Structures are given as C-alpha cells and as structure tokens.
Amino acid sequence: MPPTNASTRVPVVILTGHLGSGKTTLLNHLLRQPGARVGVIVNDFGDINVDAGLVTGQIDEPASIAGGCLCCLPDAGGLDDALEKLTHPRLALDVVIVEASGLAEPGTLAKLVRFSGVERVRRGGLIEVVDASSYFDTLDDGRGPAPVRFAAASLVVVNKTDLVPETDREETLARIEARVREHNPDVHVAYVVGGRIDPRLVYDAAVPEDPPDELPIAALLREAAADHHAHQHAGSVTVTTPGTIEPARLLDLLEEPPPTAYRVKGTVAVATGQGPRSYHVNLVGRSAHVAAAKRTDGTASELVAIGLDLETDAVRARLTDALAPAERPSTEGLRRLRQLVRVSL
Ligand SMILES: Nc1nc2c(ncn2[C@@H]2O[C@H](COP(=O)(O)OP(=O)(O)OP(=O)(O)O)[C@@H](O)[C@H]2O)c(=O)[nH]1
C-alpha cells in the first residue's frame, strides 16, 4: 500500500483561465513535482496536452496507477463520476486537479465541486490563471466593471510576466491586481513565469519522493524540463500544543484567517466526556473544512499555515491563539465547531 492521506478527504482543485493563459503549463509544472500523486480531470479531451509520461495509468485500471492518473470529462454531467473514481481510497491521491477548458465559467465549476454528491471530496480552491501580457486585450478593456470571473477564485496566478515589457511591468501588474481585487479583495495573487507556483500552495504530497512504482519516464521528463527559474517559495509556520484546545478560538481563526495565509491545515484535539476527540482542519483561501478524525492519537494539536509573503510573526501569533490549551471546551465553542463540521459534510 502506498503512503496515503486517506484518513482525510481528497482536495479537488479547479484550474480555470482564459484561452491560452497557461493552465496546462501550470498543471504540468505541478505534475513534475516528485512524490505527489495527482489525479487530473480535463474537460477538453480533444485538446489535451498534459505531459503523458507524468500522468500515467488509466482510471479504469486503478491498480496500475503510479505517479498519478488521468480522467477525461466529456461534459459537466460526468464530473461526479470522475470524482468518484479519482477519490477512491485505493488510488491514495494527494489531490485531484480539474482543468477547465478556456471557455468554462469559474463560478459554475466551483458550484459543481461544492455541491458534488461525492463524499470523499473536499474543496481545494480555485486557481484562475491570467495571461499578464494580453489581459487588457482579451479579458478586460479596463473600462466598466472588472470581469466577474475573479469572484470565484481563491488564488489568481498572473502568468507570462516575462512577456510584459520591463518598463511597463510594475504598472501593468498593479493594474491587473486592482481589477482582480474589485470583486475579490482578499484573494491571493501570485506573479509567475511558466505557471511555476509553489506546489505547497496547492497540495501536500504524502511522500516527499517519487514512489518506487513510478515510471522512469516521469523522472526523465522532469529532468528535460528542469526549471531554469525556480518558483517563488511559499513560507510556512507551524504551531503545536500538547493539550486539547478551545474550539471557539479555532473558529475565530477559520472565520477570519490571517490575510497572508493561503492554506491552514492540521489536526486539533478537543476534550469530551469520553476523552479527547480529534478533528482534521483545512482552510483554503476563505473556505474552511473540518471533519472528525477516525482515530484520536493523544491530545496533541498542530496547525500549519502556508502562504506567499507570509507574515510569519503575525500568523504565528494567530495560530498560537487558536491553539490555546483548554481542558474543557466552552459550550459556544462546541456549538460552532459542530456547525462547521456539519456544513463540511
Ligand atoms: N513566454 C511565456 N509563455 C508561456 C508562459 N506560460 C505558458 N506559456 C506558453 O503559452 C502557451 C499557452 O499555454 P497553455 O499552458 O497551453 O495555456 P492553456 O491555458 O492551457 O491553453 P488552452 O487550454 O488552450 O486554454 C504555450 O505555448 C505555453 O508554452 C509564460 O509564463 N511565458
């Protein structure tokens, strides 16, 4: 059995963006990261150009899947079927990425995942890729309201910054960011070339290295495409506490996360009459998911925050506050925790 994150649900990340903005380039960058088991759903099968050697195996033969797997989605109606297959615990995938066609409407796709009937799915965020060099010639003429598509994004990746003349770059990127924030003031924005975002913004690989069953071609492809420009590293902060915590403080953090933390994840323990109970916590952008853990191993609680330009001191202070030890939870805290667990189902 491969190492697995199976005790938690599989995050499903939606990748959207205008035609040619760089979605597939970003996806291939993520697929090249060692260790990760990534499932891919594309709804544009005729036009697929994901690196075949990185996406190995067929979903109909899950036993043969090595580094990841690929599923084609002919129409929106097939999304749940594809998610059902790709989130099967046997595959032990770290993440499923849905690459939309350039014409897809992000808000609609986000709703399809949010209201998916598939039990093992959790929302992993929506990444909108923007072509910095053609933005004001394609998506937006700069007049009137900004495109509403940004409202659904948790992360906006402003790609192809290399194609913006250096003399205009700062001003152009600032103008794009201002338009993005019109409908989504808190969204996280990354500026990249070749879709090279830090994969830690998107998923956790259960193992840091390639599994032994991965096809050698994947490693070869990775070498051939070795990144000349390293990606912008995301920062992270980890806080642990040996005891059970007060859920009201945790809920305060999840309802109003620190602005520079894109993801917050971890496991926390809460005291009950029958001993401590553990919960898995996941926040992406502003969307929180909490689920009761199947097993509780002791009372330790841990949270990790990940983000670009992470304000580490401020974030550490917030995580420390959220993990303040409590031998007994407040009634109000328990009520809020149970409510979030219910809406996370
Ligand atoms: N110069 C430059 N070219 C890029 C960058 N990112 C992607 N490209 C190129 O832009 C073209 C389109 O990239 P894709 O990744 O195919 O874009 P896409 O959004 O998947 O395209 P569709 O699926 O057709 O909507 C390709 O030729 C890429 O090599 C970048 O940061 N800089």
Question: Describe it for me?
Answer:
The protein has 345 residues and is an alpha/beta fold. The protein folds into two domains: 10-224, P-loop containing nucleotide triphosphate hydrolases (Rossmann fold); 235-344, CobW-like, C-terminal domain (Hypothetical Protein Yjia, Chain: A,domain 2, 2-Layer Sandwich), CATH 3.30.1220.10. It is built from nine helices and twelve strands. It has helices at 23-31, 79-86, 106-114, 135-138, 166-183, 216-224, 247-255, 312-322, 331-344, and strands at 10-17, 38-42, 68-72, 95-99, 121-131, 155-159, 188-191, 235-241, 263-272, 275-284, 287-292, 301-307. The strands form two sheets. It has a seven-stranded parallel beta sheet, sandwiched between helices. The protein has a five-stranded antiparallel beta sheet with strand order 8-12-9-10-11. Helix 7 packs across helix 9. The longest helix has 18 residues, at 166-183. The radius of gyration is 20 Å and the shape is globular. The protein starts with 9 loop residues before the first strand and ends with a helix. 43% of the residues are buried. The structure holds guanosine-5'-triphosphate (GTP). The site of guanosine-5'-triphosphate has 17 residues, from helix 1.
Summarize the structure.
Residues 234-323 form the CobW C-terminal domain. With 345 residues, the chain is α/β, with parallel strands linked by helices.
Counting DSSP H or I runs of 4 or more residues, the number of helices is: 9
Report the CATH topology name of the largest domain: Rossmann fold
What class do helices, strands and sheet pairing give?
alpha/beta
Q: List ligands, each type once.
A: guanosine-5'-triphosphate
Q: How many structurally independent domains?
A: 2
Largest sheet: 7 strands, parallel
Total E-strand runs: 12
User: What is the C-alpha radius of gyration, as a whole number of Å?
Assistant: 20 Å
Q: What is the second-level CATH architecture of the largest domain?
A: 3-Layer(aba) Sandwich
| CATH homologous superfamily (4th level) name of the largest domain | P-loop containing nucleotide triphosphate hydrolases
- Percentage of residues in strands: 15-25%
Low confidence ranges: 1-6, 56-70
Characterize the overall form: globular
Which CATH class of the largest domain applies here? Alpha Beta
Mean pLDDT: 83
Q: Considering DSSP H and I runs of 4 or more, what fraction of the residues is helical?
A: 25-40%
The N- and C-terminal alpha carbons lie at a distance of 27 Å
Helix and strand run: EHEEHEHEHEHEHEHEEEEHH
Keywords: Chaperone, Hydrolase, Nucleotide-binding
Protein name: Cobalamin biosynthesis protein CobW
Organism: Nocardioides luteus
Family: Belongs to the SIMIBI class G3E GTPase family. ZNG1 subfamily.
